Amino acid sequence: MKTRALGRDGPRVSAIGLGTMGMTGFANAPGMYGPVDQDEAVATIHRALELGVNFFDTAEVYGPYRNEQLVGRALRGRREQAVLATKFGFRIDAAGKIAGMDGRPENARRALDESLQRLGVDHIDLWYLHRLDPAVPIEETVGAMADAVAAGKVRCLGLSEISAGTLRRACDIHPIAALQSEYSFWERNLEHELAPACAELGVTIVAYCPLGRGFLGGNVASADALPETDYRRLDPRYSPDNHPRNQVILDTLETVAKRHAISKAQVALAWLLHRDEGVVPIPGTKRRTYLEENAAAVDVDLDADDLELLNRCDTVSGARYSDAAMASIDR
Predict the structure, then answer these.
(1) Residue 92, pLDDT score
(2) What is the pLDDT of residues 68-85, one digit of tens each?
(3) Is-contact 130 59, C-beta < 8 A?
(4) What is the pLDDT of residues 310-331, one digit of tens each?
(5) What integer pLDDT is reported at residue 28 of this predicted model?
(6) In the chain, at which end, N or C, are there fewer CB atoms within 10 A of the end residue's CB?
(7) Are the beta carbons of 85 and 129 closer than 8 angstroms?
(8) Of 231, 218, 209, which is closest to residue 34 (Cα–Cα)?
(9) In terms of DSSP H, where are the helices of 104-226?
(10) Are 148 and 141 in contact (CB under 8 A)?
(11) Does 331 fall in a domain?
């Protein structure tokens, strides 16, 4: 497995990591990607380690809480093989639902100690602020996170879904190793301002949903084919109007996939890896089969003709998220 660095001084991680959210779902959507087999989820994490995938992404709000417990259980006795990332920053009510953002220093301290306990570890390798709390200056939140680094509870810091301006302010307080954002063959908006800022500041881009929530693998004929609880039934890009229009994206991936006798998903991941050495995709899966396919993308060598064709396909139909979800993203 090839590796890439997190930030300028952070640990080296597998060039493709593993997002674990689908193994438990999100606070407000526990079945967001359909039914889950917990034994298969743990087996998937174990298989990742066997393949050299060492970068695991979880969060307090996944489950909520249950995802960190699952990841911790899967990595018990194998902690030294893993680079472990988790996130905080949502306010979660007694019913396990999201009740807003919370970037207050006191919440950061609480969240960290509880994450360490659920994961069963004495430190976290990469600790993210999941979403910016508009009521709390980023300097205050990152200051509290920096205290955790000084205390030895965290190795390096990350931010998720924040603007270039917020990133610069955060870096003035403490080095930021990674910025997590949605980035994929059909979601390239961060390339305009955020990616150049990351390159300048030495911040690695950790790309979540690099397969467009499964769309770029070509395995979802329509939203109607998905389970009733599946989040993608409400995804604007999966709507009856937009899904057929986005077929041109799959057609382009398929053209390149046939040239190399690989899958569309592998082309989409290889395209991201070719964009910049400072990008680490973390495709999420809860099954070993997809994990193995995704991990193999590190060995795909796209040539100039492939990249020219892929880079021309830059139009997508439909918004990235609903209006309510977009409101939580700092832009």
Answers:
(1) 96
(2) 999 999 999 999 999 999
(3) yes
(4) 999 989 999 998 888 888 899 8
(5) 80
(6) C
(7) no
(8) 231
(9) 105-119, 138-150, 164-173, 194-201
(10) no
(11) no
In the block, tokens 């970037």 appear at 103
Give me the helices (H) in 14-85, please. Answer: 38-51, 66-74
Q: How many domains are there within the chain?
A: 1
Domain that holds residue 139: 3-326
Looking at the predicted structure, is the pLDDT value of residue 15 above 90? yes
CA neighbor of 86 nearest in space, from 230, 232, 206: 206
Average pLDDT, integer, range 187-192: 96
Show which residues are catalytic. Answer: 62
Residue 126 lies in a domain: yes
Please give the full DSSP string across 194-235, using - where no structure is assigned.
HHHHHHHHT-EEEEESTTGGGGGGT--S-GGGS-TT-GGGG-
218: domain CATH number? Answer: 3.20.20.100
Number of C-beta neighbours around residue 9 at 10 A? 11
The 10s digit of each residue's pLDDT in 232-245 is 998 999 999 999 99
Distance in angstroms (rounded) separating the CA atoms of residues 309 and 21:
32
Task: Report yes or no: 10 and 156 within 8 Å, Cβ to Cβ.
Answer: yes
User: 136 is written with which tokens?
Assistant: 């709390």
242-264: burial string, b at 16+ Cβ within 10 Å, e else: bbeebeebbebbeebbeeeebbb
Amino acid at the residue 246:
N
- In angstroms and rounded to an integer, the radius of gyration of the C-alpha atoms of the chain is 19
In which band, very low, low, confident or very high, does the pLDDT at 230 lie, cut at 50, 70 and 90? Answer: confident
pLDDT tens-place string over residues 99-150? 999 999 999 999 999 999 999 999 999 999 999 999 999 999 999 999 999 9
CA distance 47 to 272: 23
Question: What is the rounded (10 degree) CA torsion for 319, 320, 321, 325?
Answer: -120
The predicted-structure confidence for 83-107, as pLDDT tens digits, reads as follows: 999 999 999 999 999 999 999 999 9
